[in-house]
Amino acid sequence: MRCRKCSAKAIIRLPRHNTAFCPPCFSEYVTDQVQRAIKGDRMFGHAEGVAVAVSGGKDSLVLWEILSRLGYRTLGLHIDLGIGEYSRISQRKVEVFASARNLPFVVHSLRENHGAGITEIAEGVHRPPCSACGVIKRYNMNVIALQHGMPVLATGHNLDDEASRLLGNVLHWQDDYLDKQSPVLPNSHPKLVRKVKPLYRLAEREIAAWAVLQKIDYIVDECPNSVGSKMFVYKDALNRLEDAAPGTKHQFYFQFLDRQKARAQVSPIEPDLRECVSCGQPSTAEICSYCKLVGTLQREAEPALKVLK
Ligand code: SF4
Ligand code: ZN
Q1: What is the pTM of this model?
Q2: Which ligand is located closest to the Cα atom of residue 53?
Q3: Is the pLDDT of residue 45 over 70?
Q4: Does 225 have pLDDT greater than 60?
Q5: Ligand 2 mean position to 189 CA, how many Å?
Q6: 125 C-alpha vs ligand 1 centroid, how far in Å?
Q7: Which domains does the chain show, CATH number per domain?
Q8: Which residues, by Cβ under 5 Å, contact ligand 2, an ion?
Q9: Cα 305 to Cα 309: distance, rounded to the nearest angstrom
Q10: Residue-wise over 174-213: b if at least 16 C-beta within 10 A, else e?
């Protein structure tokens, strides 16, 4: 197998593009796809600071690496979920990565702020861990990014993540979520960051291959709370379709984006936001989801959590 660009020995085949690359040409392809996303979707410019949500997994560390190589001013944001060994190793990967490259980062620890990890918090508020985790991460990432003067928050969602999420939203016709599923979510309030997904043009296996080529040391294990997640089922289904017909994932997601852009031009989606009466952060309700969750935790769960400690 030869590289389609320079004829050197290829190390990766990309059936969806009907091509194959050697290491340098593959590296160039990956960086080009990220640049194309940033510029083509007007995600951010070099004058803006970009907070990068870093879990310690391959996607977020690859994203951070590429953005810093492209010369963007970045700040890593890591949420320590307090899930035993998994969280300890995740944070260590972020620390080692950042210190080897002299990159700044901030850690927000759930145990320090709430006295418990995400699993106990979720039990305390009677919610599935991923639902509580989503609320806590979204809220804190936004607040911390803005506190540090970063108007943009970049996450490592890739093409597989977006296509499987789209499949889940379509299967359940979750119109609200479909409206929000875009690689760029503009800040619809001065207290909100612009959320961007610069890896959305790259498949998971391309990112994993690039991480290995660049010797990026990331946590391979998935979060223990993801066991049994429907997302794995959707990803698996899409991988089978992709094997049978390369390009399926790309077409599915990109054609959705084309339709979404056309729809937004006819009737732009403007969220109806006010400020939470408790914390002052933007919210669609009188009290934001985060304050509701923290309120329930304080009322119902804290006595129990004290016993757990
Ligand atoms: Fe949070 Fe883990 Fe669920 Fe992901 S899988 S949302 S990190 S609890
Ligand atoms: Zn609030």
Answers
A1: 0.94
A2: 1
A3: yes
A4: yes
A5: 14
A6: 16
A7: 40-214+227-300 (3.40.50.620)
A8: 276, 278-279, 281, 288, 291
A9: 6
A10: eeeebeebbbbbebeeeebbbbbbbbbbbbbebbbbbbee
